C-alpha cells in the first residue's frame, strides 16, 4: 500500500519509518531538504513539492498531513484540494482543532475527495512502540486507509471513534487529561523535594513506583528517565509551553458546562511557569521533553529546588 507523508518532523518521519518497516511504499514531502534526505536514506521516495508528491502516488492517492495546526494545515489542505481527484483520501494527523475538520471535509468533499481526522499520540517513542490513533470520518473513507492505521498502532491502539471531527475532539481531551496527569506528578515530586529532612532520592522513588504502585504509568516511566543521574534535569528551567489542546479542552468544558477544574488549573500552572522556576514546572517541562521531544529551556544549573 502506498501513501504520501506530508511533514517529516519528529512525528511524520518516525511514522514513515514504521510504515516502511511494515512494507508500505512511502513518498515523503517536507519543505526542508535535510528532512527529505534523511527519509530517503531510510528507503523512502521523496518529493520536493506537493505537485510532485501527488504525481508520484497511484489512485486512490492517500496523503497524510503531519504539519503544525492552523495556517500550515489550512494551506496544505487547500493545495491538495487542487491536486487530488475523486476517490483520493486526505488524513489530518496533526493537532488541529476539531472544529476545522468540518471545513476541511467540505473543501475536499466538494471535489469528491475523502477526509479523515486522525488524533495521533505516541510522541518520539511511537516508531518503536506504536501510535494510539483516534480516528474520525465516514465508514467509506476510513475503510480505504484502515490498513495504515493498523500498521501504525500497537495491538488495541486504534479505533474509529466517530464521524468527521471526532478524532481530533478525542485527541484534544486526551491532551487535556495529559496536562492534569503531568501536573499531579510534578506537584508530588516537588513536595518530596521540599522535604529536605529526609534526603529523598527522587529518582529511586520514581523507579520503585513503576512496580505495583497504583500511580504507575508510562508518564511515571518517563519521570524515572528524566530524573536519572546525568540526565541533565538540573539544567532544565521550569518554563512550560502549551500547544493549544489544553486551552481548547478548557474552552469546550466551559461551553458545555462540564466542570474540569484539574485540567483548567494545570493550564493556568503553565501560564504561571513563565514567571517562576519551580521544581514542579521543571518536572512538567522534563516530561514533555521525554515523551514528545518538546523543547526545553536549559540554564546553567542550580535552579531553585535542584
**Terminal Cα separation, in Å?**
51 Å
How do the strands of the widest beta sheet line up side by side?
Answer: 3-2-1-4-5-6-7-8
Order of helices and strands: EHEHEHEHEHEHEHEHHHHHH
Structural class: alpha/beta
What would you call the shape? globular
Annotation field: number of helices: 13
- Beta-strand segment tally: 8
Query: Into which percent range does the helicity of residues fall?
Result: 40-55%
Instruction: Give the strand content.
Output: 5-15%
Detail the poorly predicted runs.
302-306
**Mean of residue pLDDT?**
94
The radius of gyration over CA amounts to 21 Å
How can the largest sheet be summarized? 8 strands, mixed
Structure commentary:
This protein has 306 residues and is an alpha/beta fold. The chain has 13 helices and eight strands. The chain has an eight-stranded mixed β-sheet, sandwiched between helices. α8 crosses α12, α8 packs across α13 (279-292) and α9 (202-208) packs antiparallel against α10. The protein starts with a strand and ends in a 14-residue tail after the last helix. The relative contact order is 0.10.
